[in-house]
């Protein structure tokens, strides 16, 4: 027995020796992970360059050169600028959701008008660089743009405040080319809570309201991708339960690694898998780790999703130009390829990714979701348009000031009561 034990211990010792005999040698492969970006487009779920165009250029593009080194332009030498065409080319970007974001302080004011201005500036930017950017409104056009060596350019609006609680706005934004909408930004709207309500257990939660469900169903009918970054946990759960189509997190990371209300908890990740959606990992240092976060911390979030729910549900949603602090190694949009090179390398504390896996992370997962959203749209061709206005109470409760900015408020009040009061004898009413 004793001998056997000693033999066993010697055996274990040899095993350990064998393993440590190959220290973290980064074995050179005959290919680099980023080579996959030649074959499939790298699609980023979230870039706020258009908001910088508003803040820095007042949306005037005639004297603005995206095809230049913006770092050397004093106006653009700001902590929220990470993007220009030379660096996008280095970064091998193949597709981008450009964000038509307007601030939450436009909520109940001129959000719809301001959103139109941001959609317009994105379209003018795409038109200005026809050799580099291609306007895209259908999933199939993303591969076509890639074949032509251009960045597929999709439009996303960030926050339901951009609708001013009107389904007409949603439908017209779809006609203007918008293919994705984040349900909220960092403010509550009359039909959905934002993530910050989760920072205080005592804050009353409304989640997604009954009328809010109509917005999701109407997005399904139109073929617009629902994005549940920025919403509260309750809204994440409600949208996942309501949507007939896969949804995305366009720019969120993993709560279990970095507990932050902008990040996604494990039980929600499991529901996202059932929904066949995708979480596109946000690079922002504060959502990844802290101010000294590195590219390895971002890789940690990516690997977490792969190991927990599978490689089919993870993508890239950098948030470049929307934040001021990016991890060491991901200083700007030229750095994406390093993520793919590192993931493919041997000798790290993760299983090296295969080419097929890297392609899914790069863009195939997002393209799958986009195509499914289109397929659901096509299957709903006979569905009726949802035409109920938001209930007056929902808007009034969220913001009593609505009486100052909305007209014809009676039209939002319940029709049944008006009918009863006006047309039925008092004793019946
Ligand atoms: C950009 O601004 C920083 C200070 O914020 C300064 O140190 C740097 O020299 C500037 N770069 C250029 C190219 O102007
Ligand atoms: C949490 O919310 C409750 C109810 O709205 C409020 O009374 C309280 O001040 C909040 N606490 C903090 C720390 O914000
Ligand atoms: C909101 O969502 C949370 C989490 O899913 C749930 O526990 C709560 O009951 C919901 N509240 C309402 C009013 O639906
Ligand atoms: C920042 O995050 C990294 C990675 O999680 C951690 O190792 C480091 O201790 C953190 N630094 C600080 C100052 O909290
Ligand atoms: C309503 O308007 C008042 C006065 O302009 C302002 O102080 C208050 O913050 C507004 N309330 C909301 C919910 O916007
Ligand atoms: Zn955002």
Automatic annotation (TrEMBL):
Protein name: Dipeptidase
CDD domains to which the protein is assigned, alphabetical: rDP_like
EC number(s) stated in the UniProt entry for this protein: 3.4.13.19
Pfam family of the protein (one): Peptidase_M19
Keyword Isomerase found: no
Assembly mode: Homodimer; disulfide-linked.
Catalytic activity: an L-aminoacyl-L-amino acid + H2O = 2 an L-alpha-amino acid
GO molecular function terms listed in the Swiss-Prot or TrEMBL record: metal ion binding; metallodipeptidase activity
Localisation: Membrane
Organism expressing this protein natively: Polypedilum vanderplanki
Residue intervals passing through the bilayer: 6-24
Lineage: Eukaryota, Metazoa, Ecdysozoa, Arthropoda, Hexapoda
Primary localization class, coarse: membrane
Family, similarity comment: Belongs to the metallo-dependent hydrolases superfamily. Peptidase M19 family.
């Amino acid at each position: 027995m004793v001998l056997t034990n000693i033999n066993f211990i010697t055996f274990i010792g040899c095993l350990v020796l064998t393993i440590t005999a190959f220290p973290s040698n980064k074995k050179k492969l005959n290919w680099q992970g980023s080579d996959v970006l030649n074959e499939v487009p790298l699609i980023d779920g979230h870039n706020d360059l258009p908001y910088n165009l508003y803040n820095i250029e007042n949306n005037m593009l005639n004297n603005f050169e995206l095809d230049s080194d913006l770092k050397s332009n004093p106006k653009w030498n700001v902590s929220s600028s990470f993007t220009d065409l030379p660096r996008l080319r280095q970064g091998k970007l193949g597709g981008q959701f450009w964000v038509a974001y307007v601030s939450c302080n436009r909520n109940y004011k001129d959000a719809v008008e301001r959103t139109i201005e941001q959609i317009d500036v994105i379209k003018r930017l795409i038109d200005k660089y026809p050799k580099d950017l291609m306007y895209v409104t259908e999933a199939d056009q993303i591969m076509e743009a890639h074949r032509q060596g251009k960045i597929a350019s999709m439009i996303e609006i960030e926050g339901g405040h951009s609708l001013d609680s009107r389904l007409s706005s949603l439908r017209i934004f779809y006609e203007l080319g918008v293919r994705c909408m984040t349900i909220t930004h960092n403010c509550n709207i009359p039909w959905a809570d934002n993530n910050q309500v989760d920072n205080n257990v005592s804050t009353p939660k409304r989640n997604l309201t009954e009328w809010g469900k109509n917005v999701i169903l109407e997005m399904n009918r139109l073929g617009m991708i629902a994005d549940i970054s920025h919403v509260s946990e309750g809204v994440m759960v409600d949208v996942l339960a309501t949507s007939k189509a896969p949804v995305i997190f366009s720019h969120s990371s993993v709560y279990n690694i970095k507990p932050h209300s902008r990040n996604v908890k494990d039980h929600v990740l499991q529901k996202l898998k059932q929904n066949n959606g995708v979480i596109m990992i946000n690079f922002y240092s504060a959502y990844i780790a802290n101010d000294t976060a590195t590219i390895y911390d971002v890789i940690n979030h990516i690997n977490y999703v792969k190991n927990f729910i599978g490689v089919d549900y993870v993508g890239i949603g950098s948030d470049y130009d929307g934040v001021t602090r990016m991890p060491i190694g991901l200083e700007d949009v030229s750095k994406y390829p390093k993520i793919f090179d590192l993931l493919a390398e041997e000798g790290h504390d993760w299983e090296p990714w295969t080419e097929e896996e890297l392609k899914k992370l790069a863009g195939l997962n997002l393209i799958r979701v986009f195509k499914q959203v289109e397929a659901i749209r096509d299957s709903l061709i006979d569905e009726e348009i949802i035409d109920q206005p938001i209930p007056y109470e929902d808007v009034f409760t969220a913001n009593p000031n609505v009486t100052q900015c909305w007209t014809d408020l009676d039209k939002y009040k319940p029709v049944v009561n008006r009918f009863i009061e006006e047309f039925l004898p008092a004793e019946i009413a």
